[in-house]
What we know:
With about 550 residues, the chain is α/β, with parallel strands linked by helices. Among the domains are: about 55-300 and about 420-450, Metal-dependent hydrolases (TIM Barrel), CATH 3.20.20.140; about 310-415, no CATH class. Helices cover about 30% and strands about 20% of the residues. It is built from 19 helices and 23 strands. The strands form five sheets. Strands 1, 2, 3, 4, 5, 17, 22 and 23 form an eight-stranded mixed β-sheet that branches. β2 (about 20-25) and β3 form a beta hairpin. The radius of gyration is 23 Å and the shape is globular. The protein starts with a strand and ends in a 20-residue tail after the last strand.
Amino acid sequence: MLDLAIxxxxxxxxxxxxSRRAEVGVxxxxxxxxxxxxxxxxxxxxxxxxxxxPGIVDVHTHYDAQVTWDAxxxxxxxxxxxxxxxxxxxxxxxxxxxxxxxxxxRNLSVVEGMDLDALLAGTQWDFETFxxxxxxxxxLRPFANVAVLAQHSTIRTAVMGEAACERAxxxxxxxxxxxxxxxxxxxxxxxxxxxxxxxxxxxWGARPMPSTLATDEELAAxxxxxxxxxxxxxxxxxxxxxxxxxxxxxxxxxGRPAFIVTVLTMYNDAEPDRALGMYERCRAAIRRGREVYxxxxxxxLSFDFTLRDPYVLYSHGAFARVKQAARxxxxxxxxxxxxxxxxxxxxxxxxxxxxxxxxxRRIEIGLAATDAARSLEGRTIAELAHASKRDPVDVLxxxxxxxxxxTVFVGKFFNSDDDGVEPLLQHPAGVVALSDAGxxxxxxxxxxxxxxxxxxxxxxxxxxxxxxxVRRLTSDPARKYRIPHRGRIVPxxxxxxxxxxxxxxxxxxxxxxxxxxxxxxxxxxxPRGVHGVWVNGMRVFDGERYDAEPGPxxxxxxxxx
Length: 561
């Protein structure tokens, strides 16, 4: 007897091939039949002609800490995600000796825009090593499947302590110990290794995140373990330092796939040809037999921020003072003419790869706290500066100061032109990703990237057929990341499934929820057009609420070579 039968669905099997009306039978967590079912089932779902696809594979999330207090991995499973890769950018929480726990969480709170009080109150520490963390995840029984990247900054901190944020060169002994940790993580089931050279990645007290300090020799030695073990992928927030050619060299040396994550590969109308050029350089590498791919974001990269926590500006040198200042002293920093002059100097010589390079048309007033400031909502800093004949830096800072630093600004920095983004999403060197789910919760929630892709890029823009759109969200990332038996609706595959209405699928506007540990708040989105999500054959979301306990997700630890 089948455990589950889904009848009357139009099946999009993840291959990109034609859809068809079929029944899907599940037993023991796996798909056992697709077609006309002859067996009875303990549970039957009448799909009523809705679309059935494999669950979304999200290869860029940051649930490393949240999963220890929230096994649902909210909100991702409700948004169709059935497999999540964590540990991205080389940031996470394992391994971690007890003495470094607070240091690790403080860095994580800044670099990934997380609520520090929630991290300190919620993170459950019943592990020290990477292998113990994997065992902890299995005990937690997550609602989605989870794969974990070994993390450069986390490993550097575990080995070097505070010096990881201060010293570029590791000693031979430290490097040897880091290599041992990477090797141990791979053998314990890590899906690969992640790092960051991004200039946007700063930690607590304005110090750089550990991996951003590391030498090329250190990175090559650590990534080299993937080649020695003949397993794992390499993922890097590359910044301008790790070019496609740099990543190709690592892929060639190790024989392992390499993935690029950087705003430089996002469409920017100030440099409209730059991103596509990077994709083409990766295509050339792939043709040479070196797998180098780019995490392609299908959503505009916009950020809500206040000058109480202006994380989108932290990569500018002037903002080191802001990161170091006590909250009560921020107004004095912003009023200081020397600070303003330093910020202007940064904008006159912007570093490559930073989020905001000085186009004031891309920052607008989103939400004001006082009646006087509310009349400015929806207007850009460039407009206000032109109208008042003032410098934009002064307009930004004075507007915030007059509003008690509570003005919410909206930065629309990259991927804001669909015509420019479409060829990037269609490019074979890309993998649809970059949700950052679990991070930056104060201001955004892009965990619904897959539903947005189906609603906007498939239904509205018609940039993809529904068959091809489903493939891009499922079997394509699973294949490139070497995740076996996921991303397809075929006999033998795990039954990770999403039932949805193609005519209405999408995501809600941002909503604020006060459900973090310690009473912290976050931004979330809710699904539209989703009628059910199954992980390993068990329904985890019925379209309205979570309904599995404990979670049926697997902690993935075996990957294709």
